[in-house]
Amino acid sequence: MEDLPRDLLELARTARTVTVLSGAGISAESGVPTFRDAGTGRWRGGPAPPGCTW
C-alpha cells in the first residue's frame, strides 16, 4: 500500500488517456471561480454550454 502514490503516478504517465472524476464544489474550494450564483445555485454568465440539460 505504501507504493500506491508511486504506482498511480506511473500508471498516469504510461496511460493513453486519463479521466478524473471529482465532486461538486472542488473548484470553489481550490479558488477556481464557479459558474453558478452563490445565493441561488442557478447558472450565471450567459447561456448554458451546449449539451447541458439541467
Strand tally is 0
Number of helices: 2
Q: Any idea what the radius of gyration is?
A: 17 Å
Task: Estimate what percentage of residues fall within beta strands.
Answer: under 5%
Oligomer type: single chain
First-last Cα distance = 40 Å
Principal-axes geometry comes out as elongated
Give start-end ranges of low-pLDDT stretches. none
Specify the structural class.
mainly alpha
Main beta sheet: strand number and arrangement? none
Report on this model:
The structure is a single chain. The protein is mostly helical and 54 residues long. The protein is built from two helices and no strands.
Descriptive key words:
54 residues; mainly alpha; 2 helices
Topology:
Blueprint lengths: L3 H11 L11 H4 L25
Give a short overview.
This protein has helices at residues 4-14, 26-29.
